[in-house]
Amino acid sequence: MIFNDENLESLLLNKDLKAMIKFDNETGIIWLGQQRMLLLHTSAFGVLRSELINSFSNKYAKSLLMKMGYEAGHADATLSKSIRSGESAMDLFMSGPQLHSLEGMVSVKPVEINLDSTSFYGEFIWENSFEASEHVRLYGIAKESVCWQLLGYADGFTSKLFGQPIHYKEVECVGRGDKHCRIIGKPLASWNQNEQKEMDYSLQSLASKLKHLEEEVSDLRIEKQTSVSSQNIIADSNSIREIINLLNKAADTNVTVLMLGETGVGKEVFSQYLHKIGARKNNKFIAVNCASIPKDLVESELFGVDKGAFTGADKARKGRFERANGGTLFLDELAELNVESQAKLLRVIQTGELERVGGTEVISVDVRIIAATNSNLLEAVKSGDFRADLYYRLNVFPISIPPLRERLADIPGLVKKFIQKFNEKHGKSVTSITDNTLHRFNLYSWPGNIRELENIIERGVILTDKNAKIESTLICIGMPNLSSQSQNINTQGLIENNDEDKQEFFDQPSYKNMCLQAISSGLSLNDLEDDLLKLALEQSGGNIEKTARLLQITGPQCRYRMKKLNK
Ligand SMILES: [Zn+2]
Question: By the 8 A CB rule, do 11 and 120 touch?
């Protein structure tokens, strides 16, 4: 049937459908027959639509919106069948276009319709598509047709009505600059293969797709870091050289290693190094931060999930243990693991076997464990927060990584490495840091350790001009400044520092923390004095006059204290 103005009018009568719409003030529900409906702002829909496009892709947004439209078309076909069961096939079919218009989506004008179910053909002109106008409002004219949700509706309605898949294609669209939108519908089998694929409504759930991507990214990130960092450990200080020796000894065994040390000292970097020099280097290094996983997901993250274990587990998923099979599993912030998960972890470490959450099959895994923490595990054992048996199982080969302030000799090497890294990242050509910057770095307590140094250097690289050195004034804000420029020798030969700098130093929370830590550690004032003297001697290379200047005492005072120290 081909339509013209005369035969069209009678086919657009929608009184019966309009009568199905009820606004129930009391319950706040809008009804269309038995279906609950929404009056939704097109601009709100536009925001959702553009979020989908920007976060994923046109392709993904299209398939999701088509699915949404398909669902609506399907529901409306069911309604039409109940209302117009006694009427002609054409009247029944036309309820679809009429409902589409009534719902405010688009105005539909049929051009040609053949209702024979085997050779179905439907051609329609769409005017005032809300989707095209939202797309143009947010993105301007597109290259492709954009009325995705509307198209899904047409698919859903017609397929449900005929009981067989019927697919529409939008051959003209206002969204791509045409005068109006035009769609053509035919049985699915008469479209070519690519066009048939468009009607695949078995969309992978957004959540599982995201989860999968997240895992891939995290593995890639770690692999990338591993390849870089294993050659890049700075070991100019004795303490780090000793640690490298220890790691070399552990590398060829399967011994469980426990990395201890303050936050930011590089526990993960040393763990990656251990992995890279050992027999497992060609397998994966998987890192888990136990503190960042929500408590109720810890077990599924570590041990995996079997299909149907809980709502949303639409397929089986490997945990970190299985993904690390043959390689190394790095458990960071281990002390944050809850007691129930500790028990399961202990079992896996002891037996090398695990069961996925919701599963019954026993799976064998061969994984080297490196655990890390910045807390005092022994204290946690005493307070009952950490299982003693797990502690002893993990504490076979403990490695304590010293804080940066105790390995000052590594600072120049680390600075060089980070400048290189951030020059590359930001397209800069910073040469190094000034002597004054290095001097102030050496006086600073580095509560955030290497991570803090890395962040400060990144800021410095960004702020510094081409081929220049990073000035202390740019990045040493809040750091102690006892530089020679600000020192004056007073009449007694003692050094006076710039009072403002000193005040700035004393006002720092890290300084106060340092003092509080010293008090609570049980150190005596004499111990502290001795340690200060030792550090100053180290800094000045054993030069007594220099040491005295650093500590703002006289030479004889310094010698006297050194004698005391040697007793
Ligand atoms: Zn369109």
Answer: no
